[in-house]
Amino acid sequence: MKLPSTLGIAFALLIGIPVSSPATGQAATSAASAPVAINPMYTVPASSLTTEQVASMQQELADWPQLGRYRADNAQLAPPASGQPRVVFYGDSITDAWGRAKGTTFFPGKPYVNRGISGQTTAQMLLRFRQDVIDLRPAAVLILAGTNDIAGNTGLATLPMIEDNFRSMTELAQAHQVRVILASVLPVSDYPWHRGLQPADKVRTLNAWLKQYAASRGAIYLDYYSALANAQGGMDSRLASDGVHPTPAGYAVMAPLAHQAIDEALKH
Description:
Number of strands: 5
Mean pLDDT: 88
Structural class: alpha/beta
Largest sheet: 5 strands, parallel
Radius of gyration: 18 Å
CATH superfamily: SGNH hydrolase
C-alpha cells in the first residue's frame, strides 16, 4: 500500500460513480466524519512538484491500471490442469507481498496464482480484472482490496464508490462462472504514508457491507479482520510491523482462513 507518486483523480471518479445507499449506524457516522482522504500529490501546487515527480506521474498515467505488470506472466501461464482448480489471489500490496516478502510462503503445491499489485485501489483493479483474472480461467478469485481507496491513493473514493467497484468485479466474475471470495479489509488505525485519516471505522463499515453483499450474491465472505484486529481497530506490530502490511506471523494467521474460504467456495 505504498503511496503512489501519481494517478489521476478523474479516473477514480469515472470508475466509481456512487449509486448505493450510504451506510447507517454509529460506525457509519464515525466513518463519514473522518478526514477526507485524497493523495496529497493531487492537492499541492503544480509548481511545487519536482521534475522527477512529474516524470513519475507521466509514466504511471501511461498505464494507470498497470496492465503491464502481469501481461508477460499471463501469456506464459499454462491452462489450468485437469482436476486442479486454479484460484487467483487478487489485490494490492498485501496480496503482492504474499510469498514474495522475506519469510513468507504462498501456498506451496497449490494451483494458486498471485495477481496483487502494491498501492492499487479497487478502481484500478476493476480495469485489469479481465486480463488478470477472467482470462486466466480460474475456478475462483479471492479479492482483498479497499484499504488503499480509504487511504485516498488514487483520489477521492467514498464508501459507495468502493462498493460499486466490488459489485462490478463480482458481477464480472460470476458472469464467467468464477466463484467469488470477498475478503474483509484488514484492520488499520493509521496509514504510515498518509497519517491522520482515522480509517478504523471506515474499515469496519466497509467490512459490514462486504459481508452482507457476499451473502446476497452467493459469494464467500472471508473474515481476516476478526483474527487480526486489536482494540484500536488496527493490528499489533507482531502481525503488521507498520500497522498495515502483514508480517510472516500475520500471513500465518491469514493462510488457514484463506484455505477454508477456498474449500467452501469450490464446493458450490
